[in-house]
Structure formats: structure tokens, C-alpha cells
Fold:
Amino acid sequence: ASLVDAAGATATVTVTGAALGDFVTGVSFGVDIAGITVTAWVSAADTVSVRLQNESGGTLDLASTTIRVLVRKH
Structure:
């Protein structure tokens, strides 16, 4: 989807065994995310939320991709 400058979008990823308080230590994408700030956190049991925020100064079009998340137990 397209993200205009200063806009953001949040996706959720199922991570079996993730629990509130666990650390999200890594997020990877199969596409270039230059200009995008990524924040990820365990938002519920078995669920990680990944926030993509466009701070590039222009509109960015992201292709469909797989998001991989690494969670470490607290």
C-alpha cells in the first residue's frame, strides 16, 4: 500500500508463544523499507504488532511481503 509522508500503518504477526513483556529483538522484510521507521512490540499473547512510519519526505509504495519477527522471552 502507499504511505504518504508522516503516515503510518500497523500490521500484526502471529508469533506462537509470544507473551506480554517479551522482547521483539528483530524484524525483517523481503522488500526495501528505506525511509520507513519500524517499531515492533508484543501486543497480546501470540501477537506482535509492527508499526511502519513513513519519514522519507515523499510517498512510498510497499510491495506485498513476508514480515519475519524474532521474539526473546523476558
Observations:
- The chain is about 0% helix and 55% strand.
- The mean pLDDT is 95.
